Amino acid sequence: QVQLVESGGDFVQAGGSLRLSCAAPGISFMRNTMNWYRQAPGKQRERVATISSGGTTVYADSVKGRFTISRDNSKNTVYLQMNSLKPEDTGDYYCNAVDRFNSRYNYWGQGTQVTVSS
Question: Rounded mean pLDDT of 58-78?
Fold first, then answer.
C-alpha cells in the first residue's frame, strides 16, 4: 500500500508562513499530478492547489497569491509554501497523488495539522 508522508504543519500566528512537504516514495512520481487538500473542523475537504507533472499549477481562489505549490521530481517530493496565513487556513492538510494515465491509482497521506491563531 502506497502511503504519502506529509510534514511541516505547525501552530503559527496570522500573517506567518509555513512550508509543507510531502514525500511520495514508491510511486512513479512523474506519472502523477500532485494535489494539496485541506479540511477545516466541521467542513468538507477542499482542494487548495494542484501541480501537474509538467509543472502547471492551479489554486483555489481562497489561497491565490498566498500559497505556492512546487515539486522536486528528483526527490519525489511536493511542497506547499503558505504565506500571509489567516485563521481560516486552519485545518488538516493532505497530500494526494493521482496517476495521470489511470486515475484509479490515487494515493493519500495521513495529513499534517496547521493552526493559525488570530
Answer: 97
